[in-house]
Design goal:
By secondary structure, the chain is mainly alpha-helical. The protein is 53% helix and 12% strand. The N and C termini lie far apart (25 Å).
Length: 104
């Protein structure tokens, strides 16, 4: 299993939707880290474990942009079947991520 710990590998304080909205956006996260980690997991026939806990919180627009793009590029079912989202601190983030993946 490949692990992606957002607060450690990207930022404890994330931004909003796109580069235009400022630093550490969902678009930046997708393009610089999430897409590569997901591709690596698929190529290794492993799942990607995404850890949200430990950060300062996530805006809906950050989560929506990053995971909507992932679902759009790889297919919603393929993404959802190959990730594990850990969010014990704020469980509703898991639902928001699933909705974003299937939005595309």
């Amino acid at each position: 299993m490949i692990i992606l710990n957002i607060p450690i590998e990207f930022s404890k304080t994330t931004g909003f939707r796109t580069y235009d909205d400022g630093p550490k956006s969902g678009q930046e996260f997708y393009e610089t880290l999430l897409k590569k980690k997901f591709t690596d997991a698929i190529n290794r026939k492993e799942r990607l474990k995404i850890i949200l806990d430990g950060g300062e919180g996530y805006t809906s627009s950050f989560l929506n942009e990053a995971f909507r793009l992932l679902g759009k590029d790889f297919g919603s079912n393929k993404v959802w079947d190959n990730i594990i989202v850990i969010s014990a601190e704020i469980p509703k983030y898991i639902k928001k991520i699933k909705e974003a993946i299937y939005e595309s």
